[in-house]
Amino acid sequence: MNPAGPSGVPREPHDSHLPHAQEGRTRPRARYTDGLPEHHSRVIVAIDGPAGSGKSTTARRVADRLGWLYLDTGAMYRAVGLAFRDRGLPFTDDAAAALVPALDVALAPDPDGVRVVLDGADVTGRIRTPAAAADASRVSALPAVRQALVALQRRAAEAYDGDGVVVEGRDIGTVVFPDAEVKFFLVADLDARAQRRAADLVALAAARGEAPPPLQSVRDEIAARDARDAGRDVAPLVPAPDAIHLDTTHLDVDAQTEVVLDAVARALAR
């Protein structure tokens, strides 16, 4: 995969209680494998969880508050899934081996999170659909796709010249950055997650002049994706042993954000 890598625009942190990595102490360093140098100078915050758990919104808020890079790994898998669909390819190892090395996937800052570019075309709107989510789950089970995107995610974090990176996905704390300084695994009950995702899809459908999918179909698709993601052989959706579990069923985004920021503050103070 050609690394037309993710980028971000650092902003000044909004919280005075969060210490800067450079102020009077040694910045935490983590050691990674498979492509990263032994000493990696960025603070990594890993936020994993299933669909609708709030990880994307929380990760964006945390990155914004800290002025750090936000890396949406799910958008990368959605873009690759879209490439398969546009070419009419089966979700197989052979197809992945032929397609993935030639793809360019890039993320760019956007007021709503990130803008996703696939082979030079902005596909941000096209990947925010139930079909794209299902395709992302299918391609994420293919070793060639996961190997390429994990390498791209690590290079993006290494190339960023700011203090830290907030990364969200499904295998960040277990596979991509297993030595991240802060790890969270977000969960919520299925009905709450379905309602959140359905609300997102209502807004997207309205913008396109389309009818949104019914709540039950959204719930069924999330349940099916949960099963696929947890049961795949390659990097299944499981919490890291040292991850902080956060049930967001009855929490709003502000509360979730504060919990993560508090953990980051503690990690930076060590």
Write the layout of secondary structure elements.
Layout lengths: L42 E6 L6 H12 L2 E4 H15 L5 H7 L5 E6 L2 E6 L2 E2 L7 H10 L3 H17 L4 E6 L2 H5 L5 E6 L2 H19 L6 H17 L12 E4 L5 H17 L1
Describe the structure.
α1 (55-66) packs across α9 (253-269) and α2 (73-87) packs across α5. The longest helix has 19 residues, at 190-208. Helix content is 44%, strand content 15%. The strands form two sheets. Strands 2-6-1-7-8 form a five-stranded parallel beta sheet, sandwiched between helices. It is globular, with a radius of gyration of 18 Å. A hairpin with a 2-residue loop joins β3 and β4 (113-118). Residues 3-40 have low confidence and may be disordered. It has one domain: Rossmann fold. It has 270 residues and is α/β, with parallel strands linked by helices.
CATH architecture descriptor text: 3-Layer(aba) Sandwich
CATH class: Alpha Beta
Approximately how much beta-strand content do the residues carry? Answer: 5-15%
Helix content: 40-55%
Considering the protein shown, what is the CATH homologous superfamily?
A: P-loop containing nucleotide triphosphate hydrolases
Provide the gyration radius in Å: 18 Å
The helix/strand order is: EHEHHEEEHHEHEHHEH
Task: Tell me the span between the first and last alpha carbons.
Answer: 37 Å
- Taken from the alpha-carbon principal axes, the silhouette is globular
Please describe the biggest sheet, giving its number of strands, its sense, and whether it closes into a barrel: 5 strands, parallel
